[in-house]
Specification:
By secondary structure, the protein is α+β, with helices and mostly antiparallel strands. About 20% of the residues lie in helices and about 45% in strands. The protein contains one helix and four strands. A hairpin with a 6-residue loop joins strand 2 and strand 3.
């Protein structure tokens, strides 16, 4: 599992390998480390860990992690919190 900081969000990225075909699936979770008033709190889950890029089977663990990162950034940009990936 890889954890990255994006603004005041913590993004957890992971990959799991399929037994039947050897491909990889991408997973992400997003936690907000600040409350509504901006104070430091625990890490509230905005997005519990779930599979992202549902239809994509990645060729490697690294590719799945990169896919999870891209999907998480898109989700955060949809919330208006970060710029989308280029």
């Amino acid at each position: 599992m890889h954890t990255e900081k994006v603004g005041h969000y913590e993004v957890e990225l992971s990959a799991r390998q399929f037994i039947h075909n050897g491909g990889w699936a991408a997973f992400a979770a997003i936690h907000d480390s600040h409350g509504e008033r901006g104070e430091q709190t625990g890490c509230a889950a905005l997005l519990p860990e779930q599979r992202v890029a549902d239809e994509t089977v990645f060729a490697s663990e690294a590719a799945a992690i990169a896919g999870a990162r891209e999907a998480a950034l898109v989700m955060l940009s949809d919330l208006g919190t970060v710029n989308p990936p280029r």
